[in-house]
Specification:
This protein is an all-alpha fold. It is built from four helices and no strands. The protein is rod-shaped, with a radius of gyration of 39 Å.
Length: 131
């Protein structure tokens, strides 16, 4: 009984080749435009820079608060500075304090030999609504 070898169909090789080329095209497209592709790297790097800047700003704020907390330790507090700061915040003065009135617009002290004119200047500034 004679045996005859059957040749594989030509179309099977063509379909397999086209399928592999299509898969390589998909992979190439993903490399360029995918979530972690070449185009996305610029976006990710910009986001990393932005988050780094925010992190630096937050770290500076944290350091500022830590410094302020350290100033409240009883071993470091100066009673004169504490009373001076409390009086400044409460807008109170003692009888022996020297009060210098400052123009809030330019930061220069209001000075005059006549205390009434200085009071008039300050009243005018307050009435104008300049903070």
């Amino acid at each position: 009984m004679p045996t005859r070898l059957k040749r594989p169909a030509f179309w099977r090789h063509v379909v397999l080749g086209l399928g592999l080329i299509a898969f390589q095209g998909y992979l190439g497209y993903s490399v360029v435009t995918g979530q972690f592709g070449i185009e996305s790297q610029d976006v990710l790097e910009a986001e990393i820079d932005e988050l780094g800047a925010k992190s630096g700003a937050l770290q500076a704020e944290i350091d500022s608060f830590r410094h302020r907390i350290e100033l409240f330790q009883t071993t470091r507090m100066d009673p004169d500075l504490v009373s001076e700061r409390a009086r400044a915040l409460l807008s109170m003065a003692q009888a022996d304090d020297i009060v210098v009135m400052v123009n809030p617009a330019n930061g220069k002290p209001l000075s005059s030999s006549d205390t009434a004119s200085t009071t008039d200047q300050l009243s005018g500034i307050i009435e104008d609504g300049i903070d």
